[in-house]
What does this fold into?
Amino acid sequence: MHDVITTVRRVVGLDLGVATAHTAQVLDEAGAVVAKRRVVATVESFTDLEQAALTGAPDGTRLEVVIEPPGPAWLPVAVWFTGRGHTVFRVSTQKAADLRRFLSRHAKSNTIDAHTLARLPMIDPAGLKPVALPATAQRAELDRRVRASARLTREIGERKVRIIELARQVMPTIGPVLSQKLSRADLAVLERYADPRRLVEVRRDRLVALISKASGGHVTAETKADGFRDAARAAVALYGDTDAVAFDVIADEIATEIRLLRAAEAERNRHDHAREDAYMAVDPDQIARSLPGVGKVGAPMLVAVIGDPDRFPNGAAFKAYLGLTPRASETGETDRKGQPISKAGNRDLRTQLIRSAEPPDATIPNSPPSTTTRCSTRARSTPRRCAWSPPSSPNVPGPPSSAPRPTNCATPTATRSPPKKRSSSSPSTTSCPSTSVGSDARRRQVGRPLKMVRRARGARRGDLPTHQRRGKQSPPSRPPTAAT
It folds into this structure.
């Protein structure tokens, strides 16, 4: 008989307490309980847990510590045990909760939670990843700066939403007046005149001067001032003399939110400058910023989250770590594709990478042009003569240059066919270039409205457009038909 070699293991399940002591339970390789302890974040308490866990184990045995991340309580545990040479695993709360319901469905306690965490390395060893702490002080600083900037960015967005909601309570029609991202002019007006009763009484020239000064002359102050005044008048007419709306209190709350917003923006700018310095110390060659779509914010976040890139064997592992891979849904011979992504891992970096992969906006010069266009006299990269242009050859008859030109000649460039060559005996018509599409439904698919399709079809038959038949404009004169 061959002897079975069993590896000695010591797995520590540590249920962290936010305001209370941590509950620890130690299991061996067979799943038997070795020790139980209540520990706090001190050197003496952690040392006592380590000695109790290694009792009876051979020299050189390393602990496997499994924890959940409830707030900042995991950091002292990870730093101390990792510094002692042990391995620390941080698992998601959802995974631990699922296993706890399987092991103990009708009971929950700190001891049961610690036992569940200690069971995870034995049940799902491939699903656990060791905690990767920053290797240098520069990486630790970059990690904290990235987290602070991301948190302040979320707070700024929430405060802007709150300001808009409060402004709409006192002035329901103010939505079109406010900029999409709440400009400085909007904040300046709302901070002083969020009460519509005061906004109605303020002089127009004073409001225009305030908007012009706050925006630096980048917006039309008169138009914006009139919009604010109209919204205030509508609110006063709507609410009347009711006491159900505390205008002065809501205005004071809006002013408070605006001051907090400015403070958060100032703190974020300070953290952004420090984040840039830390990033340049970690990645002096700016390799992360060489990636397409990754810029000033995405590169520091990418470097901070990745840490040691060698811990990812390939790109697929990195995608799974960030939760960018689709969920698997297979049963029998059915494999359902197109499932949503798992959304595991760092939420901020996943959102940043998704935004980096978005296609360019249509207003960007390098973005691909539209597949449809209109006949016009504007300059084009490829010269092309519209069908209503005066003929360039004297052998081809056509309308005189003074004839009115049809203006809505909408034809897709992708399906445009060149105009047919006319014989000397055929009359000239003011028609748009013909297309190879044969039905109205197909024409609408390539971008031409049905009204324009019918107008172009009537022009090809020699008929006049509808607005010309009604007498709004005289039809162009046709040249006489050549005698045969």
